[in-house]
Design brief:
This protein is α+β, with helices and mostly antiparallel strands. It contains six helices and ten strands; from the N terminus they run H-E-E-E-H-E-H-E-E-H-H-E-E-E-E-H. The chain has two domains: 17-148 and 221-254, no CATH class; 153-219, no CATH class. It holds the Pfam family Brix.
């Protein structure tokens, strides 16, 4: 996943899995994410190179990033969001079952490890959330952007500080009306509904060190609802470590 993705890899119709595996090492590829479709359902395979294991998920529901953006009043997904790896949060996987432990390890290893003592806060712009429901045995995949907003500052003031564009004050008697007039100050989003943090260092022009800022998450997609159906010991092959049906399913039923 961006930025650690082999974007320069050229795919051809005659290529097979072995071809991609041969170039995975030189290109630094550690995981394959393979989508497949059958008459009954769509599937996602997450395979660790070069020797596995491979986790196979049935996709119950999904929405593309474009679908998520169309559902929002003010969608925002600037290109610099993908210059750094996202944070990953796993919830509900601590039941002690071996297949869930292996799922946790695989997803954690997809993303680079983060040292909380040395991490640069300005690099933390995205978060991937995986939530496991033990009743339904479904995994919700969500992808959000992270932004900080200083508490008690209206949207108009934040935009002015960030953009340095002179606001239109022609219809105002005094510059103070830019902040106090109804329609400006009331545009500040509710701070009591968001988690707040105290910054250890300056983050941009608005969020200053030793001040409190509200943490805002905005979904950028894609979103998926997954069900773990099988774990294979090798790379898309080998003995079946886990099967939701209790027995190895045939390839023809799932691909």
């Amino acid at each position: 996943m961006l930025p650690h993705t082999a974007l320069k890899l050229q795919e051809k119709k005659r290529n097979n899995l072995k071809d991609f595996l041969n170039v995975a090492g030189p290109m630094g590829v550690t995981h394959f994410l393979i989508l497949s479709n059958s008459n009954n359902a769509s599937y996602l395979r997450v395979a660790r190179t070069p020797q596995g294991p491979t986790l196979q998920f049935k996709i119950h529901e999904y929405s593309l990033a474009s679908d998520v953006a169309r559902s929002q009043t003010r969608p925002s997904c600037p290109p610099d969001l993908f210059k750094n790896s996202p944070l990953i949060v796993l919830s509900g996987f601590g039941s002690g079952d071996q297949h869930l432990k292996l799922t946790t390890i695989v997803f954690q290893n997809i993303f680079p490890a983060i040292d909380i003592n040395t991490v640069n806060l300005s690099a933390c712009k995205r978060i991937v959330l995986l939530n496991y429901d033990k009743e339904s045995k479904l995994i919700d995949f969500r992808h959000y952007s992270i932004r900080l907003q200083p508490i008690g500052v209206s949207r108009r003031v934040r935009k002015f500080v960030q953009s340095h564009q002179v606001p239109d004050l022609r219809n105002l008697q005094d510059v103070s009306e830019f902040i106090t007039k109804t329609g400006y100050g009331s545009e500040s989003e509710a701070d009591d509904e968001a988690a707040t943090v105290s910054l250890s260092s300056d983050l941009g022009r608005v969020n200053q060190a030793s001040t409190k800022s509200a943490v805002k998450l905005q979904e950028i997609g894609p979103r998926m609802t997954l069900q773990l159906v099988k774990i294979e010991e090798g790379l898309c092959s080998g003995s079946v470590i886990f099967s939701e049906t209790g027995k190895a399913a045939s390839e023809g039923d799932e691909d």
